Amino acid sequence: xxxxxxxxxxxxxxxxxxxxxxxxxxxxxxxxxxxxxxxxxxxxxxxxxxxxxxxxxxxxxxxxxxxxxxxxxxxxxxxxxxxxxxxxxxxxxxxxxxxxxxxxxxxxxxxxxxxxxxxxxxxxxxxxxxxxxxxxxxxxxxxxxxxxxxxxxxxxxxxxxxxxxxx
Length: 167
Known about the structure:
The protein has one helix spanning 3-8; strands at residues 29-34, 59-66, 69-73, 79-81, 96-99, 117-120, 132-135, 138-149, 152-165. By secondary structure, the chain is mainly beta. The strands form two sheets. It has a six-stranded mixed β-sheet with strand order 1-2-3-4-5-6, with no helix packed on it. Strands 7-8-9 form a three-stranded antiparallel β-sheet, with no helix packed on it.
């Protein structure tokens, strides 16, 4: 098969890399993120004259688990797995799991029973999902989004999640 025939093939929309043999194992990577206030908290509507800026040394840990899953660990110890699924899971049972239904590699119908909060990005009976959760130093909320289904669109049938951690 020549290069011209290969170029004519449409690209795969969601590669099933998790279902195929890998030439090498996926190694989780860690990105460190520090919360550092841009301005002194006293100047941004602080509640009292004694208010201090947040501790700039607090660290948020972000680990790529695989495919579309990241593990977020807050300074207070809250753990969150994004796009929690049946194919790639973190080594620990997270406290919170978010899922969307873009593809079956982004959710599971059987989350670990040890997960305290399972946030599905889709609602019941055609209604959009509504999540607004605060656990320790983590605030998670969703933004309903549309999703393509075949030739059509399901309106507000999926979600993006917004995570505010340590600040």
